[in-house]
């Protein structure tokens, strides 16, 4: 079973590649290397550096390796930055997905797992989102991910594509010490960077209507996320029907203050976070209900917050 992983040299993609190998799949990686790390891809895994906008090359690779499915993780993943660069976000996420779908149709590849985002929900009225929650994305990133979902659903009608889209919030931790989160925008790398520089991390807003006054969010371990992607691929390969979308969420979330306290405990670096005013647009609490994914994709939170922080801290040592 050969599956193509787009964005397979990235933080999440590289974990998916390893999970595919462990499950008996033969992954093939395509990555533009705009944010990927070449060493994240195992030497024995076929690797191609190219953009998913290169349709003909994708067709050639799919045919060469007799690919039967695609796990699509490639894209421009920075919601805040996408506001500054909306055309880039749409080119990489929407146009790129269209080119990938075209290549799949040409190569007769009929299974897709799409790595979507809970950013498609925007700021929902309810604080626990389900798959039935309305989608009102507030950034070009979230909009482009939703457009990707629409295109995949339409292609399913037109070409018999078997698919599912996985929505999730904040991905943290590491499943292997050599795989670290290199994003300049994610919370854990930013906190670790501050501590390594002798600075004190900041909390924005401490007067929210939450148990400790700070924002509550979903944080999921990257290895758990990878397993869900692989289980979705396995079921599609076996001809089983899946829901069009699944939330990969904790159902309860953790607060920013809890994260800071856990980071201090795990790293042994004592600090009290600097408290700043709220940032505009930050809702008090947003978490996702993962019951459907638990039913169909063996989704569950296998790691505690302390384990998430510990694994991320250990992996980040490569960058210190």
Structural overview:
This protein has two domains: 2-169 and 221-247, NAD(P)-binding Rossmann-like Domain (Rossmann fold), CATH 3.40.50.720; 172-218 and 250-289 and 296-319, Alpha-Beta Complex (UDP-galactose 4-epimerase, domain 1), CATH 3.90.25. Helix 1 links the parallel strand 1 (2-6) and strand 2. The chain has helices at residues 11-22, 55-64, 79-84, 86-107, 140-159, 187-196, 222-237, 256-267, 291-297, 305-316, and strands at 2-6, 26-31, 47-49, 67-72, 111-115, 128-129, 162-167, 170-172, 202-204, 216-217, 219-221, 245-247, 254-255, 274-276, 285-288. It is built from ten helices and 15 strands. The longest helix is centred in the N-terminal third of the chain and has 22 residues, at 86-107. By secondary structure, the protein is an alpha/beta fold.
Could you describe the largest sheet, including whether it forms a barrel?
Answer: 7 strands, parallel
Architecture per CATH nomenclature, i.e. the level-2 architecture of the largest domain: 3-Layer(aba) Sandwich
Count of DSSP helices?
10
Number of strands: 15
* CA radius of gyration: 19 Å
Mean pLDDT: 93
Total separate domains: 2
- The CATH class of the largest domain turns out to be Alpha Beta
CATH homologous superfamily label of the largest domain? NAD(P)-binding Rossmann-like Domain
- Beta-strand portion reads 15-25%
- C-alpha termini separation: 38 Å
- Tell me the overall shape: globular
CATH topology call of the largest domain: Rossmann fold
- Lateral strand order in the biggest sheet: 3-2-1-4-5-7-12
Structural class: alpha/beta
Helix-strand topology string: EHEEHEHHEEHEEHEEEHEEHEEHH
Which spans have pLDDT < 50 for at least 5 consecutive residues?
none
| Helical amount | 25-40%
């Amino acid at each position: 079973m050969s599956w193509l992983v787009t964005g397979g040299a990235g933080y999440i993609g590289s974990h998916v590649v390893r999970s595919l190998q462990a499950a008996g799949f033969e992954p093939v990686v395509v990555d533009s290397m705009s944010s990927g790390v070449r060493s994240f891809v195992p030497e024995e895994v076929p690797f191609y550096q190219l953009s998913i906008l290169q349709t003909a090359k994708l067709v050639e690779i799919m045919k060469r390796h007799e690919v039967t499915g695609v796990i699509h993780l490639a894209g421009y993943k920075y919601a805040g930055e996408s506001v500054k660069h909306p055309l880039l976000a749409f080119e990489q996420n929407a146009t790129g997905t269209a080119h990938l779908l075209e290549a799949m149709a040409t190569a007769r590849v009929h299974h897709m797992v799409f790595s979507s985002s809970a950013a498609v929900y925007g700021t929902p009225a309810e604080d626990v989102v389900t798959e039935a929650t309305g989608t009102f994305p507030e950034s070009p990133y979230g909009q482009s991910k939703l457009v990707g979902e629409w295109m995949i659903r339409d292609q399913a009608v037109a070409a018999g594509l078997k698919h599912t889209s996985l929505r999730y919030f904040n991905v943290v931790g590491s499943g292997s010490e050599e795989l670290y989160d290199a994003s300049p925008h994610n919370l854990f790398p930013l906190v670790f960077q501050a501590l390594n520089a002798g600075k004190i991390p900041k909390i924005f807003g401490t007067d929210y209507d939450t148990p400790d006054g700070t924002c509550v969010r979903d944080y999921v371990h990257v290895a758990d996320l990878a397993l869900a992607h692989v289980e979705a691929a396995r079921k599609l390969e076996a001809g089983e029907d899946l829901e069009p979308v699944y939330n990969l969420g904790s159902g309860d979330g953790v607060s920013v203050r809890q994260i800071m306290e856990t980071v201090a405990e795990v790293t042994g670096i004592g600090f009290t976070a600097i408290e700043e005013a709220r940032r505009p647009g930050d809702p008090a609490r947003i978490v996702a209900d993962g019951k459907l994914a638990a039913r169909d994709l063996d989704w569950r939170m296998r790691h505690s917050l302390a384990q998430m922080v510990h694994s991320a801290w250990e992996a980040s040592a490569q960058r210190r």
